[in-house]
């Protein structure tokens, strides 16, 4: 299946529209599942999934095959999910809510796991992107250090150092918050 995705991605990046359509259909369930790892509300995960699929469709021509398609996709999923979370927070703030509206259940009080995800997203928002991205790729997307280094174009030791530093800062934010 992974090889099928890689081949479809290669064809789609070369301009094959049918391959892109098939690729989007094949990856959709996995994208939704991964978005749901970030976002506690299924509807929010669906919104992020749609955004990710749109980003894949728009940017597939930029996929050069230097890393595996799955690595490239993980980055888009992580960034898309985090962007969806930022958008949701901004919408709530624009409506005058410090948190989500009362008619929407607060994930922090209805589920320990969902609340933990929100707390983690809040902590990640406080990190510099150079620290947040490697940590998300390792701890949420479960990529290995070599894949992260190749994708980010930095040495593996730098990846490990940034992840270590990011985890420490996230730990501080979570303990303080």
Helix proportion: over 70%
Our estimate of the beta-strand percent is under 5%
Mean pLDDT: 83
Radius of gyration, whole Å: 17 Å
Summarize the structure in short.
This protein has 177 residues and is mostly helical. Residues 100-113 have low confidence and may be disordered.
In words, what does this structure look like?
By secondary structure, the protein is mainly alpha-helical. It has a single domain (2-176), classed as Rna Polymerase Sigma Factor, Chain: A (Orthogonal Bundle), CATH 1.10.1740.10. Helices cover 78% and strands 0% of the residues. The protein has 9 helices and no strands. α1 crosses α2 (17-38), α6 (112-126) packs across α9 and α8 (145-152) crosses α9. The longest helix has 26 residues, at 69-94. The termini are far apart. Residues 100-113 have low confidence and may be disordered. Residues 28-90 form the RNA polymerase sigma-70 region domain. InterPro entries: RNA_pol_sigma-70-like, RNA_pol_sigma-70_dom, RNA_pol_sigma70_r2, RNA_pol_sigma70_r4_t2, RNA_pol_sigma_r2, RNA_pol_sigma_r3/r4-like, WH-like_DNA-bd_sf. It comes from Actinoplanes derwentensis.
């Amino acid at each position: 299946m992974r090889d099928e995705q890689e081949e479809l991605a290669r064809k789609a990046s070369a301009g094959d529209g049918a391959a892109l359509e098939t690729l989007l259909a094949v990856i959709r369930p996995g994208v939704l599942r991964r978005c749901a790892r970030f976002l506690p509300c299924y509807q929010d995960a669906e919104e992020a999934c749609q955004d990710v699929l749109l980003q894949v469709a728009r940017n597939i021509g930029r996929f050069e095959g230097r890393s595996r398609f799955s690595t490239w996709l993980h980055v888009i999923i992580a960034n898309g999910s985090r962007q969806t979370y930022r958008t949701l927070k901004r919408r709530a703030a624009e409506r005058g809510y410090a948190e989500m509206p009362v008619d929407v259940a607060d994930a922090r009080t209805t589920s320990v796991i969902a609340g933990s995800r929100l707390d983690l997203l809040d902590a990640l928002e406080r990190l510099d992107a150079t620290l947040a991205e490697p940590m998300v790729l390792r701890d949420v997307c479960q990529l290995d250090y070599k894949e992260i280094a190749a994708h980010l174009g930095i040495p593996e030791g730098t990846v490990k150092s940034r992840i270590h530093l990011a985890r420490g800062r996230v730990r501080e934010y979570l303990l303080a918050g």
